[in-house]
Amino acid sequence: MSVPISIQFPPVESDRLRALVDRFTTWAPSTYADGGFPEREMEELRRAGLLRITLPGEALDQERGHTAGVLRLLKEIGRGNLSVGRIYEGHLNALQLIKIYGTPEQRKRWYTDARAGHLFGVWNTQMADGVELHRKHDGGVRVAGSKSFCSGADRVTRPLITGVLRGDAPEDAGWQMAVLPLDEHRVKVDPTFWNPAGMRNSVSYKIDFSGIELGADDLLGGPEDYNRQPYLSGGAVRFAAVQLGGAAALLDATREYLRDLGRTEDPYQRTRVGQMAILVESGQLWLDRAGQLSDHSEDPAAVVHYANMVRTAIAGYCEQCLEMAQRSVGARGLLHPHPVARLHADLSMYLRQPAPDAALEAVGQYLLNGHGPAAH
Ligand SMILES: Cc1cc2nc3c(=O)[nH]c(=O)nc-3n(C[C@H](O)[C@H](O)[C@H](O)COP(=O)(O)OP(=O)(O)OC[C@H]3O[C@@H](n4cnc5c(N)ncnc54)[C@H](O)[C@@H]3O)c2cc1C
Q1: Domain 231-369 class?
Q2: pLDDT in tens for each of the 376 residues of the chain?
Q3: Distance from the CA of 347 to the center of ligand 1, in angstroms?
Q4: Is beta strand 219-220 parallel, antiparallel or unpaired with respect to 173-179?
Q5: 322-356: b or e for each residue (b if 16 or more CB lie within 10 Å)?
Q6: Which residue minimizes the CA distance to atom 6 of ligand 1?
Q7: Membrane-spanning residues where (predicted)?
Q8: What CA–CA distances, in Å, run from 18 to 14, 107, 185?
Q9: CA of 254 relative to ligand 1 center, distance in Å
Q10: Within the chain, which residue ranges are assigned CATH 2.40.110.10?
Q11: Which of 2.40.110.10, 3.30.1700.10, 3.40.50.300, 2.130.10.10 would CATH assign to domain 122-225?
């Protein structure tokens, strides 16, 4: 049975969404202790219709914009459980790439799969033994190599993977996307890769796809489409939204802790909580504006520039929230299974996203190269 969730922007005020996030928060200690794929939570997302919410005709139909609403939704899911937010972000990212690069037939096929409850993901990161897609005579490809950090691991039945396309034709070169029906293939999953400081429940294992054969209609877009802007760097606002959800959860947990200990009258504690609230709200304002720009700007470079600022600002807010939460709860609050200890581990890990230095440098470069006013 599917429970419709109405998400408006502004703001996300759905009682059902709030109840769902509250359940995730309640379950978080046992999910964390289990360390595996967050079964209950993902099933709830599926039942609530959130795996299809960005598809045509749904509440956050991505063909009609709604980016700010999607970011608010991601933040809320992240607030409930950061690992669930990570896996869910990959699902929405894959559906967006399919919307942008898929043929009408591919969109129909994969949207039908998403409506049927298949979980998607985007697995781009790899190590020295990364993926190669060798073109076959029939137009399909034979896959060789592995991906690392495959969030959701084999519970993701429709992963979007990337790899170097190799073939005889001159156009067979570059970074190529493919969507795999993983439930129809046997792959070598390596859970030993994933012994992280936090985010254990994202089960971001290493997976070896060698030997899998895909049809030409499983390839998404053309070589190098994955790296096209503003979609590649602009997408950083989605992980920033999930991270901000983690900071919001830290604020909630810190407040709870101080109330339980009767430490709410202390001016230093009040000040820190006030600062945390300002940081979380600042992040929300960035996200809302990023959503507007992403839907309405016709300038890809400006969208990328803004996304670079958003991810940098929100990572900084999250780091400040982590520090203030630690100071507020002290050592006792950092003992597992206290929520602050768990959130500290998860958020610190999830803040590690690709090329943060390059993102900030690009912000400065954009301004130094540009001729318009610095802010608009
Ligand atoms: C919980 C979790 C889940 C994930 N899930 C997925 C997933 O589902 N799919 C997926 O594709 N990926 C996934 N990833 C991987 C993620 O997208 C990043 O690739 C990864 O987190 C990069 O982290 P890093 O700190 O190693 O980054 P790096 O980019 O290596 O950054 C580390 C530091 O090195 C600096 N640096 C970067 N490049 C250079 C350079 N050339 N020279 C000098 N310094 C440099 C950076 O600025 C930074 O200071 C996941 C990661 C995490 C933590």
Answers
A1: mainly alpha
A2: 444 444 454 445 578 899 999 999 999 999 999 999 999 999 999 999 999 999 999 999 999 989 999 999 999 999 999 999 999 999 999 999 999 999 999 999 999 999 999 999 999 999 999 999 999 999 999 999 999 999 999 999 999 999 999 998 888 889 999 999 999 999 999 999 999 999 999 999 999 999 999 999 999 999 999 999 999 999 999 999 999 999 999 999 999 999 999 999 999 999 999 999 999 999 999 999 999 999 999 999 999 999 999 999 999 999 999 999 999 999 999 999 999 999 999 999 999 999 999 999 999 999 999 877 766 5
A3: 14
A4: antiparallel
A5: bebbbebbeeebeeeebbbbbbbbbbbbbbeeeee
A6: 149
A7: none
A8: 6, 31, 37
A9: 29
A10: 122-225
A11: 2.40.110.10
Ligand 1: which residues within 6 Å by Cβ?
A: 86, 90, 121-125, 149-151, 199, 202, 204, 349-350, 352-357
- In the structure encoding, which two tokens stand for residue 259, read together? 């109330």
Distance CA 90, CA 127 (A): 19
Distance 354 CA to ligand 1 centre (A): 4
Q: Which numeric CATH code is attached to 15-119?
A: 1.10.540.10
Closest CA to 9 of 266, 324, 243, 292: 292
